[in-house]
Amino acid sequence: MRTIYFITGNKGKLKEAKSMLSKINVNVIQNNLGYPEIQADSLEDVASFGAKYIQKKIDSTFILEDAGLFIENLNGFPGVYSAYVFYTIGCNGILKLLDRVDTDIRIARFKSVLTYVEPDKKPRFLIGECHGKISKLEMGNQGFGYDPIFIPNGKTKTFAQMDTKEKNRNSHRGKSFKKLLRLLKDK
Ligand code: ITT
Question: What CATH number should be reported for the domain holding residue 41?
């Protein structure tokens, strides 16, 4: 069985990654090393900096993943600031910002930039996106982060009302990890 280290402090992401990679017998081990999340215009830049930083520290195959929520009505906010905004105002703060915005224009998308790195090799970036909308109320208690306020297109429930498998079938992370499965199958 192959082992891949996942550089993350987020247990929710780890659970979703394990569920995806168990399909091809890859063992995912969390590594809490952490990396500086630089202030940048794109998730790709944050991920690229993180990958180079970690590559200098460990000599094993690893992944890291940077995700963000982009709300159309707020010109893409919180985007690259999603972690800080979640920590400061949370889901409730986002709902307040959208207080007067009608249901049909609460358009948003999640983006996942999954970075796969083998020792001495260039990082590979695998992108997954999920389009949807921001709910009027927080709903559900599964998942993490903005899950209680995000409804993917074609569904009537939030990510927080789905179990890990259902979220993975619909989510940005499910899509980026699906690309990783394809990449690993060919190796
Ligand atoms: P890392 O240690 O892996 O960086 P993190 O929690 O800092 O974990 P990100 O920077 O990638 O993760 O995520 C930015 C924010 O977006 C953070 O507050 C997350 O909780 C939230 N987020 C990321 N993916 C999400 C998802 O699938 N559902 C809901 N919220 C999510």
Answer: 3.90.950.10
